[in-house]
Amino acid sequence: MPYRVGVDVGGTFTDLMLFDEASGRYWRHKTPSTPHDPSLAVLDGIAAICAQAHVDPQQVAQIMHGTTVATNVILEGKGARVGLVTTAGFKQILHLARSQTPGPLAGWMIMIKPEPPATLADTREVHERISAQGAVVHELDEAHAEATIRELINSGVESLTISLVNSFANPDHERRLKAIAERLAPELPVTISYEVLPEFREYERALTATMNGYVKPKVKRYIANLDEQLKAQGVSAELNILRSDAGLMTAETAEENPVYTLMSGPSGGVAGALLVARRAGHPNILTFDMGGTSTDVALCMGEPNIARETVLGYFPVKVPSVDVRSVGAGGGSIAHVPALTKALRVGPQSAGAVPRASLLQQGRHRAHR
What we know:
Blueprint: E1 3-9, E2 13-20, E3 26-32, H1 38-52, E4 60-66, H2 69-76, E5 82-87, H3 93-96, H4 107-110, E6 123-126, E7 129-130, E8 136-138, H5 142-155, E9 159-162, H6 172-184, E10 190-192, H7 193-196, H8 202-232, E11 238-242, E12 248-250, H9 251-256, H10 264-279, E13 284-290, E14 295-301, E15 306-307, E16 310-312, E17 315-317, E18 321-322, E19 325-327, E20 333-336, E21 345-350, H11 355-368
Parallel strand pairs: 1-4, 4-11, 5-6, 5-9, 9-10
Antiparallel strand pairs: 1-2, 2-3, 7-8, 11-12, 13-14, 14-19, 15-18, 16-17, 20-21
Helix pairs in contact: 1-8, 2-8, 5-6
């Protein structure tokens, strides 16, 4: 008898549902999240919900997992040290960006522009050029490229991203550079922009590919560890990860392209709410999903609204995502009175899964200020 498990990891709680495809019965379970290692809550939750339903974990055929690992890596600035390889003359592509500054009222004067996911010190140029039509203008200098990549590897980068101008039209040079990198450092995570975003506009493609490299090591370790621990518990189910557009992808695809999971968790709530609403005869809805840390809202007119770009912090990441607006006001949000305004405020800080630790940390932060 096949069973399916849905898992949604939030900042405060991890929610699970076990579904029996034959009878239509389902069981739910909620357990505190484990921010230091999100897989622990998932593993404990699956064991608990299977025990609750008197189901052998080996009977679970599929696990559908919504995750916030990639999102948190970017928001907390705790990603990998990324080495970026680009076409000669485009070393500052991530720093030039689109020259957008906040305003009005002279916002540009006080703007502190955040550091891109790959620094200039970790960016290298290679001699090559592809035309916008895909023709080879300058052949790739493989000897120089190999020396360049070796230098980056020896400098200690934890991930490598390759984004060449016009590779969307002809990815041959990117693929050859990836082969060189994998030969020199087989364990180093490598991302090429053509596989992540095969579209024109070199800045958006380079940024999205670099973001993929930025989150890749941690997401890959998380998924691999989760899969290994599940098998150790006797769960041989297929592990699928929820994409930002509310679709599913294999664990292997998520390990290679984790940037597609940036809105994984919130998109699942929208898809589930819309399914229920449609069956009730209400295809046009406004979803409202309050968790312990944040509240997510989305407008659906018969279908989820899929945006082509997601903004995390300052950076626009061009991946298909359900258009969800999130605010830091959840059930566990901390109320406080700022010294400047003397007005009661709630959030965005949250008590999270370990309230005492969160409150102590917030108190230390205020004392420091």
